[in-house]
Give the backbone structure.
Amino acid sequence: MSTAETGTTGTGTTGTGTPASRGDVGGEVVLDARGLARRYPAGRSGLRRRTVSAVDGVDLRLRAGEVLGVVGESGCGKSTLARMLVGLERPDAGTLSYRGTDVTRMGRAEHGVMRRGVQMVFQDPYASLDPRMTVEQVVTEPLAAARTGSRATRRQRAGELLELVGLSAGMLGRYPHQFSGGQRQRIGIARGLALEPSVLVCDEPVSALDVSVQAQVVNLLGRLRDELGLAVVFIAHDLSVVRHVADRVAVMYLGRLAEVGDAEPVFERPAHPYTRALLSASPSVDRTQRGRLGRREVLRGEPPSPADPPSGCRFRTRCPLAVEECSTDVPLLRRARGDADERLAACHRAEVLLGG
Amino acid sequence: MAVPSTVPPPSRAAHDPLLRVRGLRVAAGTGDEAVELVRGVDLDVGRGELVALLGESGSGKSVTARAVLGLGAPGMRTSADEMSLAGLDLTALTERQLRPLRGRRMALVVQDALSALNPVLSVGDQVGELVRVHTGASRRAARARAVELLAMVGIPGAAQRVRDYPHQFSGGMRQRILIAMAVALEPELLVADEPTTALDVTVQAQVLELLDGLRRDLGMGVLLITHDLGVVSEVADRVAVMYAGRVVEAGSADDVLVRPAHPYTRALLASVPQAATTAGALATIPGSPPVPAQTPPGCAFSPRCTWALPACSAEVPAPRRHDGAAGPRTSACIRSQEVLDEHR
């Protein structure tokens, strides 16, 4: 599998390197992941140690001022990927560079650079804020940990951060329970911004929020991207939200990228059968689209176990287009022949899909 | 159909509404501590009809669903002017009398399938137990029926898999097992409380399709509790929108989702991203839904509403009736006609 991964890396980087997408977002590359892989031990089978391959050879490039959406179903490895991107999890293989510095091995110095530059926003704003800390303590904790400034300057900075996310500096003395879910998520975002990172990795940032509150947080992230030139990794299972915020999208299936590229072609003209199936199964709010689910692409069988992934293309056991080649050769991320769009798909049959 | 009782319901549910609820109230706590969770809800579900009860957290939608089945947490008080299932007055029944109705005539599917299933019983035993208790069938017959039911909800190799335990099934499969148990006795009314919320979209699509097929084939009325506008749009015939314990708007899904008559429904629809609106900021609703103990006076949505007038916080607006393209509809807003007119 390792040889295949090297191949994936080569193709992936040349293609994704081209600046494109909404407007002219071609900013500096802030995060560059090549062939990232992560396996977890999963007990033994006889004398052999079994492992679950959560992420297997993922290439991603993130530029300043862009929102990269990561979608996929539960167990596809999107949260593991997020944790590797912020350095909470060490990859078993592959490299991760932050602003050109390889931070994969992470000595003490690189660790500090990474910590400041890449911050995370968590899914559950009820669990991710310490109930015994005031908002000031929550928001200034990263500054204190990084030994930045005096207490007074940190306090002032916390006030600015709250204003930045649409809360008022007068709320610094309050405790998390005095805030609603949407406000707590803003506090989580303010904490993430405290060290002025270049990258904010958001793992399902709106899934735990009420529908009427989600839009506030989605708009806030968009505004931060525009105003601060922040790069945002937006992980979500809600395709319509990702469609709305993302400049580029990565679709994951069982630890690998199925498709990655500009949001518009990926959503409108998918080049991977899994992307197509995923899109056709998500219900639309538009009532005139009723009956879509009845016409959806039905996937055969159940998702395979990541402890025992299929050979070749991991999607082939459920794919309506699978042929012999799919079980023998791992499909590399590539630009399909005749595809004018800025995106890559890991499918041997991408041309068939785009042609039909 | 959450039309007020003075309005004659029009559809096929008209002559024979399967479920008819008027003035349902549920309160938790006692005395000064009492908090009203549901504040006078009207609801109708016809045979073979799928009605969505749409609401955010704290809107009282799940409490409403459980109250219909006579299930309340300890310390909750339920009252209703009228609550009947196919003409049978549910309010007059004791717990002992209600019990045999659950499962046989009305059934509940909950969100969390893993905790709803018994981890130490095989799924065949669990589904079979239900059949044995309610119909007095033999073990052998109950097991055969369990296989049949699991096959009906699309579990591959049902005959072998009845011996498996809940942890051996995926999330989507477990949800199907719950649905199999709920429809085992072919109830007239199925109440499904966020049945697909924990599921991936491809699995959600399968479960929604299954529910849709079952109500068509078995003529079941389905009350679907959800916060997901996409799900409502895909499967609902009619929809009742709840906010802070009240139904604020009700009617055919074709009317409510296309031309909402209540500012809350309208704002909610505008705040979710749709394919047509990929660029720019989403419309937002200021603030957040109230917690039941701090429900604002008058119209509970008025503090967040861009249409609000001083009168809105003075009095709870009564549902107003309008003629929708697909039948009568109601909106509990004093400016509902203006909201409707703005669509033209």
Remarks:
- Chain A has twelve helices and eleven strands.
- The longest helix of chain A spans residues 211-228.
- Residues 1-24 of chain A have pLDDT under 50 and may be disordered.
- Chain A touches chain B through 48 residues (CB under 8 Å).
